[in-house]
Amino acid sequence: MKNLVLVESPAKAKTINRFLGSAYRVMATMGHIRDLPKTKLGVEIENNFKPHFTIIREKQKIVKQIQKAAGESQAVYLAADPDREGEAICWHLAELLKKTNPNIHRVLFHEVTKKAVNVAFKEVKSLDEGKIKAQLTRRILDRLVGYLISPLLWDKIGRRLSAGRVQSIALRLICEREREIQNFVPEEYWTITALLKAAQPPSFPAKLVKKRGKKIKVSSEQEALKITKELEKLPFILKKIKVREKKRTPPPPYITSTLQQDCFRYFRYPVKKTMAIAQRLYEGLEVGERGRVGLITYMRTDSVRVSPLALAGAKKYIGENFPPEYLPPKARVYKNKKKVQDAHEAIRPTYFDLPPEKVKPYLKAEEYNVYRLIWRRFIASQMSAAQIQETVFEIEAGQYGFQAKGEVVKFDGFLALFKSDAQEKIKSKQNGEKANEDLPVNLPVAQEGERLELLELKSKQNFTQPPPRFTEGTLVRELEARGIGRPSTYAPIIATLQDRVYVIKEKGKFIPTELGLYVTDFLIQNFPDLMDFQFTARLEEELDLISEGEKKWIEYLRDYYQLLDRDLNQARQQEGIKQKGIPLEEKCPVCGRSLVIKEGRFGRFKACSGFPECTFRESLVKKEVKKLAEKCPECGGELVLRKGRYGRFVACSNYPRCQFVKKEAQETGLPCPLNCGGTLIKRKSRRGKIFYGCSRFPSCEFATWDEPVLKQCPQCSSSVFLKKKKGKELVLVCANPKCDYEEESPAGEEKDEKTD
Q1: Burial class (CB in 10 A: 0-12, 13-18, 19+), 237
Q2: Neighbours of 351 (CB within 10 A)
Q3: Minimal CA–CA distance to 468: which of 511, 429, 425, 438?
């Protein structure tokens, strides 16, 4: 009898299958196999929060196959990912299989390599009860929040809304940032820059920073003009030269959040895409003669810890590819922040003889980009620090003080890995960033007391800027900094916010919708504790304590539910249970009354608050619109090509004031086979399917799905035939219902049909 090994994905199964002998059979569960039911709460609150899990509908066939395989196997090895989510998958599998085959083991490996897999199967473990309880607590809490608060939102605001334990906090961050931007009042300030020349080239810019030894702020054009006129008459003296040596140490290897941030920063990859690419690199890809190998360690981690074996591998690589001075005397060990689980290593390459250039021919461009980031970040983390010489020129012009900064790299150290890298340019271009005037410049060799020649004097108007909107990368960084959520939760949270239309993404930045702002205000007002940043962050600490066996999970669930239940009861007692929609400041273009957001059969839409007297409505669902040169025959407005439920159609751009819709019927020029005097017209059904009908409908009801062709029937007076399929052949059939004449389709007709 073989041993059964269960993993989550087919890719991981293929890779592991290479490492295990013929005594093992590897199967994929395709992720979770059980979950709480969708149609009800699925948690017995009065019975110590007992959950009722059901097999996911789409996984029932897979579960039957796994149960059958388990019954035919000597032992079952559960090899899901080494985190809480993976432990939960293993627990669900064990619960389903323990009657079929009680000989169940847990195997843990943090990289999909032959060595790691073989070691894991030699050191089998039992399921981690602490991790399972922590994951059950998280799942039950998410269900309580989602299934108890969401119906309240439906009653108070509208259908298809949802609340989430971390989702709503992330939305609050975006909404609060938007209000900061809206309330921001820009302040004018002016910068004055002098282009100076010493005895030795090159010339260099210096910024005005002081007046009479104190920091200066130039607030108006008049003040800037006055200062520049005064400066034009003054000598510029290099008063002091400050030189200091400083080290630039390499950053630690990637964790999940920093990888997500850099992939967005450099390549504009959304968080979801980054995780999908990293998952493929972890589970294994075909690399030439090496076959399928896992190229990186587990990609869901918040720890910067690195194994001694990996440190030795990095040391060997650096020693073989760089001069001795690029290798520090001892390995670098990075400290984790507080509130870190430290269950896994940092994200790093698994094979040090597979640098990015070697595997590039076998990877997709996006896979290569992410692998290269991970590789260089890890190797750099174990290299020597860069030695930088910073020079500061302090320049006096009368009562004014100028400053110029310059840097010289004395020893590049880990920066040697990035010499040919153009990623910073890519980043600046993608973000639309302007050159930073505060960046160090190339300073000349000069002497203290030297008089400098003034080449040019520039003043520039500036305004203080509001805080930037969140991108996926900066939102992840903010959530991580506040200790909210876990690396594995960020991608689905961001997706949900967009699916619910709480936020929209514009030029890569999140903007809350009116709906998102309204829902956030409602939740803050009625659930102040659950919407509190610190309260949500403490939950992650509580889950860690449950995982470590230091806190009882049922007690924590009970305390949380009491708080939730109290807030729910207070919110339900509010007057005006059913709102007429989410109020907007925008006015109705038809009658001038206020607009509201409502929920309809086909999604959210703006509507007039004066309904039914005013029937104005405008969908909030994004639709494809293309302007046409053609004008509306009814109002003279522009016609646009839209995409609706049944395909594309042409309509007036002034809808709903003008409701003209251009009929898409196309004349075929063929007479109706019933000889009624009408012609056949090509139309579309409500479901978008093409058919041919008489132009005199409803007087003549002739219609057919088959394509008509012009041909004289030898048996009757009809001049129209229909293309029909007869088995695999095409035949031409007389379109007259009273005539049964047919003939074979001419040569080439079948090929044309397939092409169509």
Answers
A1: middle
A2: 17
A3: 511
Whether 518 contacts 334, CB under 8 Å: no
Q: 143: which DSSP letter?
A: H
**Residue 262 to residue 430: CA distance in whole angstroms:** 13
Q: Which tokens is 75 given?
A: 């032992």
User: Rounded CA gap, 609 and 587, in Å?
Assistant: 9
CA distance 523 to 528: 7
Determine the length of the chain: 756
Cβ atoms of 144 and 556 within 8 Å: the answer is no
Please spell the DSSP secondary structure of 218-267, one letter per residue.
B-SHHHHHHHHHHHTTS-EEEEEEEEEEEEEPPPPPB-HHHHHHHHHHHH
* Cβ neighbours of residue 600 closer than 8 Å, sequence gap 6 or more: none
Strand 509-512 to 679-684 pairing: unpaired
Q: Write out pLDDT tens, residues 621-666.
A: 655 556 777 888 888 888 887 765 545 667 888 876 787 877 655 7
User: What are the angstrom distances between the C-alpha of 122 and each of 20, 78, 198, 309?
Assistant: 12, 14, 71, 18
Residues 79-113: tens digit of each pLDDT? 998 888 889 999 999 999 999 999 999 999 888 88
Alpha-carbon Rg for the chain in angstroms = 35
Residue 395, token pair as written in the block: 């320049």
> Closest Cα to residue 138, out of 541, 475, 532, 529?
541
**CA dist., res. 59 & res. 39, Å (int):** 17
Task: Give the residues across from 303 on adjacent strands.
Answer: none
- Catalytic residue of the set 298, 317, 368, 692: 298
- Count CB neighbours of 378 within 10 A: 25
Which pLDDT score, from 0 to 100, does residue 657 have? 74
Residue 186 near residue 463, CB atoms below 8 Å: yes
Domains assigned to the chain:
3-127 (3.40.50.140), 137-183+468-572 (1.10.460.10), 188-249+387-463 (2.70.20.10), 256-384 (1.10.290.10), 666-755 (no CATH)
Rounded distance, CA 126 to CA 113, Å? 22
Task: Tell me if 227 sits within 8 A of 443, measured CB to CB.
Answer: no
* CA gap 193, 404 in Å, rounded: 10
Instruction: Determine the Cα–Cα distance for residues 339 and 542; give it in Å rounded to an integer.
Output: 10
Tell me, yes or no, if 317 is annotated catalytic: no
DSSP string, 525-559: HH-TTTT-HHHHHHHHHHHHHHHTTSS-HHHHHHH
Which tokens in the block code for residue 87? Answer: 């432990």
Tokens 């999909």, located at residue: 112
- DSSP, collapsed to helix, strand or coil, labels residue 489 as helix
Question: What number of other Cβ atoms are within 10 A of residue 173's Cβ?
Answer: 20
Tokens 């968080």 belong to residue: 271
Instruction: Give this prediction's pTM.
Output: 0.72
Q: CA angle, 37 as apex, 33 and 43 as ends, to 5°?
A: 110
